Amino acid sequence: MGLNFECEKCKGTGLIWGTSESNGLIYENVRDCDCMLPAKIDRMLKKSGVDYEKYAEMSLGNFLVDTDEATKMRNIATAFLETRNSVGLGFFGKSGTGKTHICIAVCQEITRQTVMPHRYFSYRGEIQKLKSVMYDKEAYERKIAELSRVKVLYVDDLYKLAKNGDKFPMQDLQIMYSIINNRYINKRATLFSSEYSLKEITDIDEATGSRIYDMCYPNICKCEGENRRLRRKH
Ligand SMILES: [Zn+2]
């Protein structure tokens, strides 16, 4: 279980015992030793929903800063990590600009720096799962509550392929509003990426768009740059 038998502080038990005093009484307390943290962080990363191997690939250090836009994206990410100047973070626009990379980099930094778990919510796949349990009120509400409560949530590719004809299904919009509104009320860190601009998202669903705006401002980045994935092949 990742115990470190070399550790001087806990002698390999993983626990640090101490005492505290309150109203003249002495209490014993115990906490995890710091040597346990790397294993704990690893467990969190393995449960987040991101393929574990992706973390090495999608780190902040690996983010290619070769355009003004990429520089801006990285600066927004760093400012957010250092100052938490907003509840959320949003990258909107073209694919291939590194939106997913920068969001996963921020998520893993939060987990590594604060030992707080994050959860990856890939819109396309997860919305189908949520819709499939909608008939079961209890199961559905449990899922919504779980997604509302998780400390850090990354909603990737919001509304991707949701459009049906010229409309967005009401069910999809309602599900996303419930999650995002709960997180907005409770000020839970939430990252967003989408191929739609925030204006388009607001046109699709005004309530959801305005919540995202309030959570992310001023960390809202429009990504319109050239497709770097394509460029690299030429
Ligand atoms: Zn230790």
Overall mean pLDDT score? Answer: 90
How many angstroms does the end-to-end distance come to? 47 Å
Helix content range:
40-55%
Strand % is 15-25%
Query: Which ligands are bound?
Result: zinc ion
Seen as an oligomer or otherwise, the chain set is single chain
Reading off the top of the CATH hierarchy, the class of the largest domain is best stated as Alpha Beta
CATH topology name of the largest domain? Rossmann fold
The domain tally reads 2
Number of strands: 7
Q: Just name the CATH architecture of the largest domain.
A: 3-Layer(aba) Sandwich
| Low-confidence region ranges | none
Give the spatial strand order of the biggest sheet. 4-5-6-3-7
- Our count of helices gives 10
Cα-atom radius of gyration:
21 Å
**Which structural category do the helix and sheet elements fall into?**
alpha/beta
For the biggest sheet, the summary is:
5 strands, parallel
N-to-C series of helices and strands: EEHHHEHEHHEHEHHEH
Q: Quick one: overall form?
A: globular
CATH homology superfamily name of the largest domain = P-loop containing nucleotide triphosphate hydrolases
